Amino acid sequence: MADGLAEFSDNEYDLVLIDCPPNFNIVTKTAIIASGNLLVPARPDYLSTLGIEYLIHSVKALVKDFNDFAELGQGEKVDSIQPKLLGVVFTMIQEYGGGPMAAQRAFMGQHQTAGLTVFEAYIKRNDTLFADAPQYGVPVVLNRYTSGSHQSVVDGLEEVATEFGRSMKWWK
Q1: Which residues neighbour 25 within 8 Å (Cβ) at sequence distance 6 or greater?
Q2: What pLDDT does residue 147 have?
Q3: Is the pLDDT of residue 25 over 70?
Q4: Which of 49, 52, 63, 114 is 20 to 30 Å from the Cα of 108, by its Cα?
């Protein structure tokens, strides 16, 4: 995967996002090995936030195992990897009073105190907007809704993109 992505990196794309399933299978491992940076999306609930710690531990073990293999120098030369964890972005946030609900804020705060970078921006939950997007093949941000809730979701996605860009040192 890394070799395939390298063909595009210099000419056509500034960034390639790889969306992986929420488990640590061969697809996710391959994507991690091919990536320079990792962003972990998570719901702010008990089971999902438990998975963050597991994922970080698993990524560290994968990187160590891969780099140990790369150092053996057998067969085709393989470069070592050191993907940078940019942080956690919380998704499916239900707002109340202009911010995440109290129950969700508690889970979001746990990881800030655990030493993980947690994006201040988050992806809001709006079942109506997100449910229709795949059916029509149009991203939520490009739909021509005129409701305040649509604009709120778009604004939130733009905040996530801006914070992501800052974490990548693209813009200030």
Answers
A1: none
A2: 74
A3: yes
A4: 63
